[in-house]
Structures are given as structure tokens and as C-alpha cells.
Amino acid sequence: MPIRRSTPLDDEWVESHMCSVDLRLHILSQVPFFCGLPQGDLAKINGQFIERGYEPHQTIYYTGDPARRLYVVADGRVKLIHHTLEGKDVTLDFLQPGELFGTLGLETEDAYRETAQAQTHACALSIGRQEFRGLLNRYASMALKVIDVTAERLRDSQEMVSQLSAHSVEQRVAFILPRLAEKLGEERPIGRLIQLPLSRRDLAEMAGTSPESVSRVVSQFRDQGLIEAGRRWVAIRDAEALQAVKAGTGPS
Amino acid sequence: MPIRRSTPLDDEWVESHMCSVDLRLHILSQVPFFCGLPQGDLAKINGQFIERGYEPHQTIYYTGDPARRLYVVADGRVKLIHHTLEGKDVTLDFLQPGELFGTLGLETEDAYRETAQAQTHACALSIGRQEFRGLLNRYASMALKVIDVTAERLRDSQEMVSQLSAHSVEQRVAFILPRLAEKLGEERPIGRLIQLPLSRRDLAEMAGTSPESVSRVVSQFRDQGLIEAGRRWVAIRDAEALQAVKAGTGPS
DNA sequence: CGCTGCCTTGATCTTCTTCAAAACGTGTGG
DNA sequence: CCACACGTTTTGAAGAAGATCAAGGCAGCG
């Protein structure tokens, strides 16, 4: 009964190394950290960044690589992954343009703790961590912004810990989907569509469960009319009902 | 066979509101954020902090309270908890003196997302978030330190997400114990003793499992000689073996 | 002593993973 | 345009892991 169209996702195509100087300036000025800086400074900062394009599934850096750079997503989506020794992967986050990854501070650790991978065609800007530190030292407002986004990420991560600790698979999926939709989604007739090709496996790695379990839950939600989902995409149809499931208030 | 002494923990007793001005200055100067500040500035900063003592299990703030202050643990241990709607509690972290909690930035959110509770007799200093922001603005080195510790906490939290997503209860306990021991522990003849009265329930809420399951795993580890544990305490005897269990390399 | 919590241990039951097979979509090449 | 082949998804059934329930033991304390 539910019509499963072929992918309703927008085709995003980011040519490798496509970012022109103007585009870069534009992107950097969009990034929250640089708001309020004089135009000249922005241009100088821009010069410190290196850009690079990535193919879908191409790795930006691996766990264990020397952590020398800080990255900003310029275009596309980037996935952060933890590999376990048993070979399972855990997806920590999907990043959208403007978000930071890589190494933030002059850390004691000098190896990346996670792997960063382009989920779509993507472009990222990066800067050496010493240079970034220099910027933070010079521009206090920037440091404050970095603190804000990092603190927010920390809270999100802790919320995830809470979900994983105390909730069922059904609840965890009902938690993940709206979160992704809010962050990466776009309003559509079908509902809020997650702008990212997401396999059952991708969702499973986010929710800490198996692809099969995700499939069952997704089917159930679809039958209940809470979501609309196809081969590699999901749209949220009834956010309140999902909220109820997530909280344990809802049906089954 | 294993001797279960009565609590080998040091009796820590922190009188409410005991912190003298000198002690406060000392504590603040110990806190990594204030390293390298001129002594005069430190005294001025000190004046902006309010101190308060707490009884064990006394709540410092509740989830949902308006998030107006930033706290620094001065003495004792503080526990950060997530409450779920079903009534389960999840322990996010135990904090030791020098660590921050409360609200960091000028956040969009204005309610605490977690509950902070004294685990032992404790003393905490606090400052209004606007004032704290003022300090960060003035002292760039302080902002950098805050970024460092926050980024470190984020990585820890993400590591926890990974553990919860992909590992068994046995592995999770083998992960939690050394982490607590390293952070809060002290070297003893029995092994590295966790300086905190920890019930099975406390451990369960940290590892995302039930007290009964923790009890079984703890008994098993004790029988294998990996740890020494009593009524409300644990000491690590064989860190390497625990490491192996945590990684799935070790024996069952 | 006897009481009160905490801890342990066993038994049962639910949930979820795993394995396996079939159905489906998608893209390909005839 | 159709048929095929591949990877993904769905679904079922078996099995494992862990939660829950319940009872008994142990320590500390009045």
C-alpha cells in the first residue's frame, strides 16, 4: 500500500576540488566560528585552510593516524566511525557543512580516535592544529563558539549514551530517526526527508543494533504510518508519535 | 577464599561550607583553567565564585532546572545522571576535584540536561554563566583549556557510545572499571583501589545493565583474580587481563 | 541479637542477534 | 523494452544474551 518511489533524495554532486576561492570564502563566512570577524581577517584565515574533495565512502582519515589537522565540512556529508576490534563499526555522527571534525585542541593525544569518511561526494577545508590554536588565541569570539558547539556535541553524545543504556531497539530507532531528520532533513510532501542515502546497515550502526532489527522496526513504523521509507531513504511522517515511542509512552 | 575486608576506602569528610579563602585560592589555582594567570587576577576571579557544600546524595541541580551556573568540583566526588522517563537512571560520569560541570557556554538551551549529585561529601564552586563567559573572553588561554577538556570529555563519551553499541556486558564492565580506577583510584597493596563507594547498582547504571548482571560479572572477575571487590568497593588487580576481556581477546 | 540493606545466585522469560532463505529494486546488457 | 544479476531488504526460525523475578546469605548497625 505505501508507495515506494525511487529515491526522492536530491542528487548532490560535488566535484572534487571544486570549491572556488569565492565559494570558500562564502563557506567560511557561513561557518558559525567566523561570524563577526572583519572581512580582511576572514580572507587571511581563508588562506590558512587547505581544501580537498572526496568521493563517497572515501576515507578522510583513519583511527590511529597522527592527529594533525582540524577539518570543516564545506559540502556534502561526513560520517564519523568507531571501529571495534571485533570488526563491528559504530557510527558516531553524520556531519553537515559548517561542522568541525578532526582534532580540536593541542591535545595530549596525537592520534585520531575515530575514522572520518565521506558519506556523499564531499569537500572539506582543513587547517593545522597549531594554526587553529593560533586563531583561537587571537579571536576570543571564535573560541567561545567552538566551546558552544563542542559542549552541544558532548550533550548529544551523552544523550546517546543514555538511549543506548536504557532503551529498547524500537525506542533507539525512534530516537535516531528524528535526530537525523532534524539535522539533515528537508521538508517534503511525504514528510521530513533525511537528505542522505541511509542503508539499514547505516541505521543499525547508528542505533547500536543489527540491520535485521532495524528492518523490522522500520517496517513496523511504516505500517503504523509514523514514517515513510524506501530502499535507502527515510522520511518522518508523524514526529509526535515517534516521540511517544521513544519515550516509551506510545503503542507497543 | 578472597578476603573481603570492610571498606578499605579512605574516609573522606568534607564539612559543608568548609572551604576557606586560602583553600579556595589553592583549589582554583590547581584547576587547569587558571594555570598561568597572574596571582592578582586569580584573586579577582576567585571573588566571582560562590562556594557551597553538599551532603552525600544531595542534589546540586536537577534536570530541567534553568541552566544559569557553571560549577567546579572543589572537593569530593560529583555524579552526573540522566533520568529516563521510565524511571531508570543512567550515570554519565563521576567528577573529581578540578572538573567542570553545569553549563559551559551561552547556550541556546537554558535548562540543565542532566542531574548533578554529590556522591560523597563534596564542595563545589560556581559562577554565573555570563561572568564565566566574560572570563573566557578576557583570558584566551582559559578558553583553550576549556576546549581541551571539553573535547576530551566528548571523546570519552563517544568511546562509551561505542562500548554500549557493540560490546557485551562483560566487556562493558571490563571497560568501566579500569576507567574509574584510573580516574579516581589510588595504588594499594590489593591493587588500584577506586576511591568511591560504588554499589552494584552504581556500576550497573554506568555500564548500562542491571545490578544482577554486574554482580555476576564482578564475581567472575574476582574468581579469575582480575579484581578484588567487596561490598561497596572495587580494586583492579590485573589491568592487562581486564584490557584483554574488554577487547574480546581474553578468556570468556 | 535481630533488623535492614546489599549482594549473590538460581530460574524463567523476554529481547535481540544470528543464520538462512526468499523477495525486491536497480542497473545492466542484450 | 525486457531479462538477468547483483546487492539490499524483508521475513522466518533458532539460539544466545541479558533482564527480571524471587529467594537466600552476608555485613553492618541499632
Structure commentary:
The structure is a homodimer of 252-residue chains. With 252 residues, the first copy, chain A, is of the alpha+beta class. Helix content of chain A is 41%, strand content 22%. In chain A, strands 1-8-3-6 form a 4-stranded antiparallel beta sheet. A 4-stranded antiparallel beta sheet of chain A has the order 2-7-4-5. Chain A is globular and about 55 Å long. The two termini of chain A are 22 Å apart. The relative contact order of chain A is 0.14. The N terminus of chain A is likely disordered. Chain A binds a DNA duplex (30 and 30 nucleotides) through helix 7.
SSE blueprint:
The structure is a homodimer of 252-residue chains.
Chain A: H1 21-30, H2 39-48, E1 50-54, E2 59-61, E3 69-75, E4 78-83, E5 89-95, E6 100-102, E7 115-118, E8 122-128, H3 129-138, H4 140-166, H5 169-184, E9 185-188, E10 191-194, H6 200-207, H7 211-223, E11 227-229, E12 234-236, H8 239-247
Antiparallel strand pairs in A: 1-8, 2-7, 3-6, 3-8, 4-5, 4-7, 9-10, 10-12, 11-12
Helix pairs in contact in A: 3-4, 5-6, 5-8, 6-7
Chain A binds a DNA duplex (30 and 30 nucleotides) through helix 7.
What portion of residues of chain A is helical? 40-55%
Based on the structure, what is the oligomeric state of the protein chains?
Answer: homodimer
Number of strands of chain A: 12
Q: What's the tally of helices of chain A?
A: 8
Distance between the termini of chain A: 22 Å
Strand-residue proportion of chain A: 15-25%
**Which chains share the greatest interface?**
A-B, 46 and 46 residues
Overall 3D form of chain A: globular
The SSE order of chain A reads HHEEEEEEEEHHHEEHHEEH
Low-confidence stretches of chain A: 1-5
Query: Could you tell me the mean pLDDT of chain A?
Result: 89
Structural class of chain A: alpha+beta
Taking the sheet with the most strands of chain A, its summary is: 4 strands, antiparallel
Rg for CA atoms of chain A: 19 Å
Could you give the order of strands across the largest sheet of chain A? 1-8-3-6
